[in-house]
Amino acid sequence: MLDNITLGQYIPGNSALHRLDPRTKIIWTGILMVAVFLLETWQEYVMMGAFILILLMISDVPLKQSLKGIKPLLFILVLTAVLNIFFIGGTPIFTIGPVKITYEGIYSAIKLFARLVMLIISASLMTLTTTPIAMTDGIEKLLKPFERIGVPAHEIAMMMSIALRFIPTLLEEAQRIMKAQSSRGADFDTGSIVSRVKSFIPVLVPLFVSAFKRADELADAMESRCYRGGKGRTRLKSIRFTKLDLSSSLIGVAFIALTFGARFIFNI
C-alpha cells in the first residue's frame, strides 16, 4: 500500500506542465483546491473533472500513476462518503430502524468523494511534474516579499522541499523494513484493524532511527558543501515566467470563469 503514495514523487518529462514555472503550478494548485470546495452544481463538477482530466492528458503522466495516490486513502474516502449518506437529512429513500438513507445524503456523499479525488489528483500532478529543486525555488520566490516582515523564505522553502523529497525515500525504507520483518514471521495483512495497526509499531521504531540517521547525513552533506543558508546564494538556473505561463494562466482563468458561470447560465 505504501508504494501507492505518489506525493513527493517526480516523473521526468517535457510536457507543457513540466515546462511551466513552479510558481505557476503552485499558485494554480492552490486555486484549484479552493475552486473544488466552491463547487455546487453537477455541471460544475463535470467541468472541473474535465479540466483536471485535460491536465492529466497534457502532463504525459500515466493515468495509472496519477490514480495510485487515491488507493491508500480509498478507505477514508469511502468512509467519509458513507457517513454523509446516513447523517444528512432530507427526502428518505428507505429506512432501516432509526437510520434513514436520503437522496440528499447520497448526493452529498458523491459530491464529497468527487471533491477529495480531485484534490488528491491536483496535488499529485504538481509534485509529479516538478523537480524538488524547482519546487524549492518556486516556494522561495513566492515567499520572498514576506522577508520584509521577518519570514525566513529560503529556510521555509528548503524545509518543505526536503520534506517532500524524503517522502518517497521514507516509504521505500518502510517497505524494506516490512519485508525484512515479514521474512521473520511478522504479519501485516491479516487480523482486525486494531491488530494491523499494532503490527506496524515495530516498523515505526527502526523507521524513525533511519529517518534521524538520514537527517544527520543530509546535514553533514550540506555543511561539507559550504551551505550556510540562502543569503548571498546564486543559482545555476533561474526560474522565470514565460509566454507558456501567461497563456496557461489565461486559459485557466477562462476555464474557472466558465465553470462557475455555468450555475448562472443553466439557471437562466
Please provide the count of β strands: 2
Helix content: 55-70%
Please tally the helical runs, counting DSSP H or I stretches of 4 or more residues: 11
Low-confidence stretches: none
The radius of gyration computed from the alpha-carbon positions, rounded to a whole number of angstroms, is 22 Å
Neighbour order of strands in the largest sheet: 1-2
Structural class: mainly alpha
Mean pLDDT: 79
Summarize the helix and strand pattern as letters. HHHHHEEHHHHHH
Instruction: Assess the beta-strand content as a share of residues.
Output: under 5%
Q: What composes the largest sheet?
A: 2 strands, antiparallel
Oligomer: single chain
The outline comes out as flat
* Distance linking N and C termini: 47 Å
Question: What do these coordinates show?
Answer:
- The chain is mainly α and 268 residues long.
- It starts with 15 loop residues before the first helix and ends with a helix.
- A two-stranded antiparallel ribbon has the order 1-2.
- Strand 1 and strand 2 form a beta hairpin.
- It has eleven helices and two strands.
- It has a domain of 157 residues.
Give a concise summary.
With 268 residues, the chain is mostly helical. The protein is built from 11 helices and 2 strands, in the order αααααββαααααα. 67% of the residues lie in helices and 3% in strands.
